[in-house]
Amino acid sequence: MSAASISAQTGAPAPGRARAGGGSTPYLMLAPALFLLVLAWFAPIALVALMSFTRYKLGDTGLDFIGLANYARAVGDGRVVQAAGNNLIYAAMVVPASVLAGLGFALLINGRRASRGLYEVLFFLPVTATLVPMSIVWLFLLHGRIGPINSVIAWFGFAKIDFFTDPKVVLFALAVIEIWHLAAFATILYLAGLTTIPRVLYDAAAIDGERHPVGRFFLVTGPMLARTTVFVVVTTTVTALQVFDTVLVLTRGGPMGASDVMLNRIYVEGFRSLEMGYASALTMLFLVAVLVVSLVQTRSVERRAADR
Amino acid sequence: MIKNSVELIDVRKRFGTTPVLTGVSLAAAEGELLTVVGPSGCGKSTLLRIVAGLEAADGGMVRIGGRDVTQAAPHARDIAMVFQNYALYPHLTVRANIETPLRTRGLPLVARLPAVGRLWPGLREARLRIRGEAEAVAAQLEIAELLERRPGQLSGGQRQRVALARALVRQPRGFLLDEPLSNLDAKIRTHLRAELKALQRALGVTMVLVTHDQVEAMSLSDRIAVMFAGRLAQVGSPDDVYRRPATLQVAEFIGDLPINRLPVEPIGDGRVAALGMTLPLRIFPRVDAATLAVRPEHVRIVPADRRSGSGLAATVAHVEALGSDQAWHLVPAAAPTLRLIARQRSIGAAAFGDAGRPVWVRLDPDALMLFDEAGDRVEFAFAGEGEQRSLEAVP
Description:
By secondary structure, chain A is an all-alpha fold. Chain A has helices at 2-10, 15-21, 25-51, 69-76, 78-110, 116-128, 131-141, 148-155, 170-195, 199-207, 213-224, 226-241, 245-251, 262-272, 276-306. Chain B has 2 domains: 6-248, P-loop containing nucleotide triphosphate hydrolases (Rossmann fold, 3-Layer(aba) Sandwich), CATH 3.40.50; 257-390, CATH 2.40.50.140. Classes of the chains: A mainly alpha, B alpha+beta.
């Protein structure tokens, strides 16, 4: 419907005005914005794309083109495959948990009147908090020996868990930190989404005889939050795929690559091994993958929203 | 028969410290279309929401079909409501919108869930019945071809029909309509107004309608309740409210052209005069009338050179075209700060309608209304046959 109304507005430009400027004037007007767009977005990506076809190492004076060799190497690189797999497992844990927790918290907080402001501030703290210092806090909380969470586990009689050194749970431990971070983010977005739902729809639902909260959710709240959900899912997916700071600070990808992720791989190849060409190829692969994922997510929902 | 009546008994409501309703008692009888009309902020919408159960009253009682529902939840009151902005579910098709009130009552919760609900077994018959009822009411309201569309693809008038269909699809005890036509443009509004009235007559349902538009109230209602500042000023038939307004405020609110007001003073013996013109009436038992009110259609104008009998000298300020009628704005010679409005038929009236032209103004004695300082109606009797005739309209 919105697409239709936009095309209705822009579909027929005033014929006189379209010709009035004429010539190069419109492009001149666009030039500053285009210049900045090229400088800030297209140029760096083009540079990285160019470098991905070379054997460039930091410090080299010339470019040595090797075609797709870097890409071929990446596909056969066991550590890259492991990192990419970890990325997917990590996102599969983080995204649904963050989105559902965010929705749940938002629904609970939205019902509050007096304490709503307090909760909003509380839930915004993880969003504003820098993840690196917060990682240190989580390192302590989840510490294998002195961590309070392990004390609780021990109190219940279970064996203590080495969250950051056990290859089987390290990814899960990192995911917990990300969920803490992203659930708060999702909560804030859902709270904003909830305020846009017209009250009168709930009145209509009450008159129509919908007295069950679950029924009310599926009749009004859920559908009305569809657009918010698209945004939340896409942003949390992209953020989850871009996990890096907690990995670097807490595990450096270990133990034995069990928490290695793509950004960490790129970092190691580019800035430790100084293999900028190879790192660039990995960057391009990662960029395309993230792009495809977010496009698929947006498209699939926009198509459904289109026939509304 | 009170099966489908809607009654309010001394309903009170305040928001914080602001009183919104100060003891409202009102009843819509079975099959009646009762309109609550008043300016914005007078509490009429709150009143309707209290009837619906969307708002709780601070005091008083709500009865629907003779049953006390003051504490009942909206779904337990067996009423349907049409909202000002229609409040259709934007993500559902017209069909699903109309079916909703039937589905919430006829299907268990699990069966109503999206996607998985379809798989719930053993409800084929119930679903078919709901489908049939929704289609029947859609056909009745001539929106059958819109069933698969979504509200976003409909015009205002079509949305209003869908909202009506959603209300009519059940057989509730009462229909509540909150400003149902005010979001439509004038032509569709007039059309839907007539249709709504016909529908209400045909179905014989009880309707309580809230509007700020006195024209709508006058044209639709069996009875009108005029409300100001959380209080009912008058309840009566449209004709009654128009001809015998209980207060000056009601007299001013009802009627599309503003009613004329003239100050009156007692001249002894229960007689009063307005702008030096003795009125052909006698007030009893009190003589404290303060204002004379007369509707524009009861103000007669003749050219000044044809003046005769009791009346007022005035000049024409300007003439406003209203289509079939004209509104003449007049300045009485005795009180140049006042304005009188006279409604004249357009045909042949323009002959002496130039601004500044002197005219002779006469008031229909039958249509005079008197109000006291407080704005309440003052009763009076005509003084005598002779005098009444002397004020009669010129041919």
